[in-house]
Amino acid sequence: xxxxxxxxxxxxxxxxxxxxxxxxxxxxxxxxxxxxxxxxxxxxxxxxxxxxx
Length: 53
Fold this sequence. Notes:
The protein is mainly α and about 55 residues long. Helices cover about 40% and strands about 0% of the residues. The protein is elongated and about 40 Å long.
């Protein structure tokens, strides 16, 4: 399957540009990073896409 920006957004359930993480006053390790579901290749693609656009 070809990696595309749209396929990554669909997998994440949101567009990375509009993502607003919940920030608390203390470190909370119980919250899972939503980007952790991406493969290394998808993460690299997303980084390059966001960096170049």
